[in-house]
Each structure stands twice: as C-alpha cells, then as structure tokens.
C-alpha cells in the first residue's frame, strides 16, 4: 500500500456573457385586465426580456387605476387606459398582449388594429391555427395587414398553444410513419376566470349548455396535421355538457345537482375514413374524484414506426393561468426573430 498527497484536477471557471443582460427589452402593452391580463402583468415582472409600459381595459371603472394594483403586484406607475387607439399611437409600445375573451372574428378585429399600428401581437385567446379559426380568406387578410404593418401575430399560451398541440408535435417528430396521435387533458376549472365560467355555462341547467370558443380543440388538431404534413381531409368535433350529481362550490360560485359543472370535448382529424389525430378534453369545476373518476393531468400517445407515450402532471395543473402567461411571455423574443406575418405557435423558434 502506498500513501501520498491527493492531486485534484485543475478546474477552470469560465465567465459567461449573458446576451439577455445587454439586449434591449421589448416594451409591451397588456390589453385586458381580467385574470389572464393580471397573470401576464405578474409574469413580466420576472422577465429579462419584457417591460410592461401600458395597460388597456374594456371595463370603465378600471380606467385611470394603476395596472400593478389591479394585478396585485404592487404599484407600477402605469395608468390603465380605456382607449386602445391612444396606446397604439405611442412610440414606446413594441408589442401588445391580447388578453380578452371573444369569438375569433372579434379577436382578429383587435389584432388587425394592433398590427396596422406596427405593433407585434400575442393573443391568449385561440388563433393557434388562424385558417381554421377564421377561415382562409379572413386569415389571409389578417396576414396581409401584419405584413403591411411590419408586424407579427401568434396565438400563444399553454392550452391551446402547447399541451395538446405543440407538445404532441414534438413527440411525433420521433416517428417517420405516423398512424395515430392522441392527447387528453383533464382540467380543474375552479380557478379559471369568472368570464370563462360564464362562457362554459357553469352552474346553469343542462338545456342552456353551449360550447365555448375557449380551448378550440379543432384548431389544435389542424395545427398538428399541418405541422406533421398528415394531409387531413376533415375534422369532426363533439361537445357534451358535464352535469354534477352533487353540490359543488368554490370562490362564491355554486353548482347545484343536475346543473352544468363542466364539459367534455373531442376533436378528430381524418384521412379518408381513418382517424389520425384525436384530441380530448374534460374541463370540470371542483373535480370530485369519487363521482367523476377523473384526476387532473394530461397525456400524449403517438403510434407509428415508433411508439411514444407520456403522462404529464405537476404544477402545470391546478391554476393554469400563470403557466399560460409564462408561455406567452417566453414567445416574445422568438416571435421578434421572424419576418412580419401571421404564425402558429409551433412555427416559433425555441429561443430568440
């Protein structure tokens, strides 16, 4: 046995120059001061890329208030305006986050005004596949306006925009031959915004059930089909209201037995008579595991010359508004690297 001094290898410490520390920050306005607008405001406070410089509200009694106080982040010195036009006329606004509700046509109308003014736009309300949401002619017109204004538009977020469309595309990229892509999300709705609860009919009788433009699964199916060149012939949608047998209550919202406590949506993309894509979502207010026999989470399954399957759980679920906001804020830099135009979220580079 021999003994002696132990010699450690030389460790070289390298200094890394952070590009984000020296590049200009994007100056953003937030249109809509509801729950997702407040989440975007909070997310931008931790961003190295985005400064919030303006806020626009459609609620008269919020005009003139401090955006940070509305968002619960503390005063920001940003007075909320109720005139989008005056904000779009400012030279210190580079981009607008659209955080309002509305049918696709209304969303496109506001986005058109934004890009006409030469500002980039990120919408948190659908439009992840503009031609499906708006129709080919209206989507082409919106893209023309974006190019003419020298600006960019993308629908970004978590769902739609990632968990049931971009993520399945990423997994399916492991296959050359793709036979079937299926994805499912089971979502707890208790912490969703009150406006979305109203759109989804939570607490109403079954005869008042109606589908909501939120979580447009057919757009996600179309996105997957285009991204992977599957050549879909048609997309079929189904919707059913989800009724409760028990009393449910949260945050002042009460749902009595026999009333609507959520929805079950399914969207299928076909090539001929064969289903090639199937996206399914349950949105349930106050999930009751015993009654519903469902647990919050998501899954993706790809069948082809390789088989890929995953289940997704964790902090992404529960209150999904913060992660939706994070996804949108992270899209700002990648969007800015693209030529002017109208984009799907899968067309964004990973970084910018």
Describe it for me?
This protein is of the alpha/beta class and 352 residues long. The chain folds into 2 domains: 24-157 and 323-347, Rossmann fold (3-Layer(aba) Sandwich); 166-317, Dihydrodipicolinate Reductase, domain 2. It contains 12 helices and 14 strands. It has helices spanning 35-45, 67-71, 84-88, 104-116, 130-134, 136-149, 166-172, 194-199, 217-227, 289-292, 321-330, 332-336, and strands at 26-31, 50-56, 95-98, 120-123, 152-155, 178-188, 234-243, 248-250, 253-255, 260-271, 274-284, 297-304, 307-312, 341-343. The model has no long low-confidence stretch (mean pLDDT 92).
Shape: globular
Number of DSSP helical runs:
12
Characterize the biggest β-sheet. Answer: 6 strands, parallel
CATH level 4 superfamily of the largest domain: NAD(P)-binding Rossmann-like Domain
Quaternary structure type: single chain
Distance between the termini: 57 Å
Strand % is 25-35%
Mean pLDDT: 92
**Which range best describes the helical content: under 10%, 10-25%, 25-40%, 40-55%, 55-70% or over 70%?**
25-40%
User: What structural class do you assign from the helix and strand content?
Assistant: alpha/beta
Number of strands: 14
Strand order of the largest sheet: 2-1-3-4-5-14
Q: Give the low-pLDDT segments.
A: none
């Amino acid at each position: 046995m021999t003994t002696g001094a132990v010699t450690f290898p030389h460790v070289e410490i390298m200094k890394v120059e952070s590009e984000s520390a020296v590049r200009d920050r994007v100056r953003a306005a937030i249109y809509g001061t509801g729950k997702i607008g407040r989440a975007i405001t909070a997310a931008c406070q931790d961003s190295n890329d985005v400064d919030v410089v303006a806020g626009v509200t459609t609620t008269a009694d919020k005009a003139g208030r401090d955006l940070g106080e509305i968002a619960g982040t503390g005063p920001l010195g940003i007075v909320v305006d109720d005139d989008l036009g005056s904000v779009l006329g400012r030279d210190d606004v580079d981009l607008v986050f659209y955080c309002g509700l509305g049918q696709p046509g209304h969303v496109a109308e506001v986005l058109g005004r934004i890009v006409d003014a030469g500002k980039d736009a990120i919408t948190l309300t659908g439009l992840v596949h503009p031609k499906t949401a708006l129709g080919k002619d209206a989507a082409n017109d919106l893209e023309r306006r974006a190019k003419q204004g020298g600006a960019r538009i993308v629908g970004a977020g978590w769902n739609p925009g990632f968990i049931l469309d971009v993520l399945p595309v990423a997994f399916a990229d492991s296959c050359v031959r793709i036979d079937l892509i299926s994805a499912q999300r089971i979502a707890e709705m208790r912490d969703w915004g009150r406006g979305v609860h109203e759109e989804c009919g939570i607490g109403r009788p079954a005869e008042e059930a109606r589908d909501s433009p939120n979580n447009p699964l057919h757009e996600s199916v179309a996105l997957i089909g285009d991204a992977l060149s599957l050549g879909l012939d048609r997309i079929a949608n189904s919707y059913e209201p989800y009724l409760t047998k028990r009393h449910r209550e949260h945050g002042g919202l009460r749902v009595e037995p026999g009333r609507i406590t959520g929805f079950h949506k399914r969207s299928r993309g076909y090539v001929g008579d064969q289903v090639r894509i199937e996206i399914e979502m349950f949105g349930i207010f106050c999930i009751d595991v015993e009654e519903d026999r469902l647990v919050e989470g998501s899954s993706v399954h790809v069948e082809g010359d390789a088989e890929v399957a995953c289940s997704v759980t964790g902090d992404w679920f529960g209150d999904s508004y913060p992660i939706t906001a994070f996804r949108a804020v992270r899209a700002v830099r990648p969007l800015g690297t693209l030529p002017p135009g109208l984009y799907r979220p899968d067309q964004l580079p990973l970084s910018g």
